[in-house]
Amino acid sequence: MTDTQKKPLLRRLRYALETVLVYILYAFFRLLPIRAASGFSGWICRSIGPHLPSSAVARKNLARVFPGKSADEREKIVAGMWDNLGRVLAEYAHLHRIWDYVELAGKENLDKARAGGGPVMFFAAHLANWEICSIGVKRAGFNVYPVYRRPNNPGVEGLLRYARGTGSVGLIAKGAAGAREMLTVLKNKGALGIMMDQKLNEGMAISFFGRPAMTAPAIASFALRFECQVLPVRIERLGGVRFKITVYPRLEIPRSGDKEQDTRAILTEINRQFENWIRERPEQWLWIHRRWPD
Q1: pLDDT tens digits, one per residue of 155-169
Q2: Which of 13, 22, 47, 183 is 20 to 30 A off residue 252, Cα-Cα?
Q3: Average pLDDT estimate for 233-255
């Protein structure tokens, strides 16, 4: 067997083992009370995560974004990030009951958006347990379709879709087919949920913490084309499994007639809001993303 033939075989074997492990962990955390599952997983990841290679990316990002913080302060953020990420992993098994631990602020903005009719887009960042954002929007009466990136391992996608189903009427995977689904939802005056803070290799270079970062322009393009309402949704972990969702007033969509200029203005405002949220609770954001080109 050649090296070229071995690689797909080894990948399939790795994916199979990962899939078994993920299902075992999901079942284990589902058996535990939510507080115990979240706390235990947070402790495990906080203990191991800072020693993983991906933490080097987090430290590099933090040094660039917060040059005024000491090394010890940045290290506390890294540990807090892993604690939060570990908790999120365990909380997937409890998304169907997690709303009992969430408080909602800005309900009046949801009510205005629903009364306004027409398509709506909600945007959020990978802060705290970001999966709760769509749950809150759905509970407010919106038939929301979260947009997500398919996992590299197809074996775990079914489990993730099952867990995420609590917060949606349907899920849309990124890609050409997903783009068509998004268009259909908006044409039918539905609602999309979009995460806007991940690394991209294409898009528009928009300032993020003072450095250009490739940012997906789809939300701005859709807003201009369909006259969508665009609402920011923030999630915070208040401690343990207590959360707060804040829905902010709809963005003012510029309409200068220059599509590129208007798109850039919308994306700049979105990144500005993300910056503010992350500065307030930096340990709750995923610093292991390679968000900026080196």
Answers
A1: 999 999 999 888 777
A2: 183
A3: 97
The answer to whether residues 124 and 234 touch, using CB atoms and an 8 Å cutoff, is yes
Where is average pLDDT lowest: 11-15, 73-77, 111-115? Answer: 11-15
- Average pLDDT score over the chain: 93
Structure pTM?
0.93
CA gap 218, 215 in Å, rounded: 9
Name the residue with tokens 């979240």: 38
Q: How far apart are CA 46 and CA 40, in angstroms?
A: 10
pLDDT at 293: 80
Inform me whether the pLDDT recorded for 1 exceeds 60.
no
